[in-house]
Amino acid sequence: MHLARFVSLSLLGLMALPAHASEALDVMVVRNRTSDQAFFDIRASGFTRATPERVWQVLTDYERQPDYVPNLTAARVVSRNGTELVLEQDGRGGFFLFKRAIHLKVRILEKQPSSIDVALISGDMKRYSARWLLTPAEQSGAAGTRIDYSGSIEPDFFVPPVLGNAIVRADIRKMMEAVITELDQ
Questions:
Q1: What is the pLDDT at residue 13?
Q2: Which of 39, 79, 81, 185 has its CA 20 to 30 A from that of 166?
């Protein structure tokens, strides 16, 4: 999921957003450190007027995501066994001079209609896990769906400490904005 949807739905220009999409978007990134790891914890949420069924349909159409998710260049379902599948994704993450190609192979567990769990199998991350939660919601009198994204990532490449949070936050925001824009069309 892209440092973030890739960073999924992971790696996620940008299309013009409906005013309500950018107002309803909240993104938080925290860089954590342990003695031998530096990883990012991510939380993002947004609202779309689309039904949970429509959100599910769009989020699980993995091979079409490169059509609208910035920095996601390819996605291919390698295998599927019921609600579990293996997905390969290619994209570009970072910004300015810190761009790089990213390849991920992830295991996805679908729990229709409410959640999608993503776990790293291999690729350009030391750690990568993500979860999408879909909840029927109402905002400003409009019925729709609240989309919550959470993840924990540790790139297998250098991310400048001073810019890391901003890089990841920007990628996640672009991904969420692109998903919401696609849903609100």
A1: 31
A2: 185
SS3 14: coil
Mean pLDDT along residues 83-112: 87
- What does the pLDDT read at residue 24? 67
CB atoms inside a 10 Å sphere around CB 74: 12
Average model confidence (pLDDT) across the chain: 84
Q: What are phi and psi of 47, to 5 degrees?
A: -125, 140
The angle at the Cα of 14, spanning 12 to 15, to the nearest 5 degrees, equals 125
State the Cα–Cα distance between residues 18 and 142, nearest whole angstrom.
14
Report the domain count for the chain: 1
82 in any annotated domain: yes
The CATH number covering residue 100 comes to 3.30.530.20
**How many degrees, rounded to 5, is the angle at CA 74 between CA 167 and CA 10?**
40
Supply the range of the domain harboring residue 127.
Answer: 19-183
